[in-house]
From TrEMBL:
Gene3D superfamilies: Nucleoside diphosphate kinase-like domain. It holds the Pfam family NDK. Belongs to the NDK family. This is Nucleoside diphosphate kinase-like domain-containing protein. The keyword Kinase applies. Residues 1-74 form the Nucleoside diphosphate kinase-like domain. Keywords: ATP-binding, Kinase, Nucleotide-binding, Transferase.
Length: 74
Protein backbone atom coordinates (compact mmCIF):
# COMPACT_ATOMS: atom_id res chain seq x y z
CA UNK A 1 0.00 0.00 0.00
CA UNK A 2 2.80 2.43 0.86
CA UNK A 3 6.56 2.33 0.45
CA UNK A 4 7.16 5.38 2.62
CA UNK A 5 5.47 7.37 5.38
CA UNK A 6 2.12 8.77 4.36
CA UNK A 7 -0.32 11.47 5.38
CA UNK A 8 -4.02 10.60 5.38
CA UNK A 9 -6.46 13.47 4.99
CA UNK A 10 -10.20 13.70 4.58
CA UNK A 11 -11.27 16.23 1.98
CA UNK A 12 -14.85 17.51 2.14
CA UNK A 13 -16.93 19.71 -0.11
CA UNK A 14 -19.62 19.87 -2.75
CA UNK A 15 -18.95 17.40 -5.58
CA UNK A 16 -15.64 16.66 -3.89
CA UNK A 17 -14.99 13.25 -5.46
CA UNK A 18 -14.87 14.40 -9.10
CA UNK A 19 -13.15 17.65 -8.11
CA UNK A 20 -10.43 15.84 -6.16
CA UNK A 21 -10.06 13.23 -8.91
CA UNK A 22 -9.33 16.09 -11.33
CA UNK A 23 -6.78 17.51 -8.89
CA UNK A 24 -5.08 14.10 -8.57
CA UNK A 25 -5.06 13.37 -12.30
CA UNK A 26 -5.41 10.11 -14.23
CA UNK A 27 -4.57 6.92 -12.34
CA UNK A 28 -1.99 5.92 -14.95
CA UNK A 29 1.12 8.00 -14.21
CA UNK A 30 2.26 7.94 -17.84
CA UNK A 31 -1.11 9.28 -18.99
CA UNK A 32 -1.05 11.86 -16.19
CA UNK A 33 2.38 13.11 -17.26
CA UNK A 34 1.26 13.42 -20.86
CA UNK A 35 -2.31 14.73 -20.53
CA UNK A 36 -2.38 16.30 -17.07
CA UNK A 37 1.20 17.29 -16.17
CA UNK A 38 0.18 19.79 -13.47
CA UNK A 39 -1.83 17.25 -11.42
CA UNK A 40 -0.47 15.49 -8.33
CA UNK A 41 0.14 12.27 -10.25
CA UNK A 42 1.59 14.13 -13.20
CA UNK A 43 4.11 15.85 -10.93
CA UNK A 44 4.82 13.30 -8.18
CA UNK A 45 3.84 9.89 -9.60
CA UNK A 46 6.68 7.46 -10.35
CA UNK A 47 4.89 4.28 -11.45
CA UNK A 48 1.29 3.10 -11.43
CA UNK A 49 2.03 1.46 -8.07
CA UNK A 50 3.77 4.57 -6.73
CA UNK A 51 1.33 7.09 -8.12
CA UNK A 52 1.65 9.63 -5.28
CA UNK A 53 -1.96 9.85 -4.14
CA UNK A 54 -5.13 7.86 -3.51
CA UNK A 55 -8.56 9.20 -4.36
CA UNK A 56 -11.75 7.29 -3.76
CA UNK A 57 -13.85 6.13 -6.70
CA UNK A 58 -17.21 7.18 -5.26
CA UNK A 59 -18.73 9.09 -2.34
CA UNK A 60 -19.94 5.78 -0.87
CA UNK A 61 -16.44 4.29 -1.00
CA UNK A 62 -15.09 7.53 0.45
CA UNK A 63 -17.22 7.10 3.56
CA UNK A 64 -15.93 3.55 4.03
CA UNK A 65 -12.32 4.60 3.46
CA UNK A 66 -12.68 7.46 5.94
CA UNK A 67 -13.99 5.06 8.58
CA UNK A 68 -11.13 2.66 7.87
CA UNK A 69 -8.31 5.21 8.06
CA UNK A 70 -9.61 7.33 10.92
CA UNK A 71 -11.53 4.85 13.07
CA UNK A 72 -10.17 1.35 12.40
CA UNK A 73 -6.48 2.20 12.01
CA UNK A 74 -6.42 5.09 14.48
Amino acid sequence: MSSAPLVAIEVRGNDIVPRFQSFCGPFDVHVARELAPTTLRGIYGHTNMQNAVHCTDSPEDGSLETQFFFRVLA
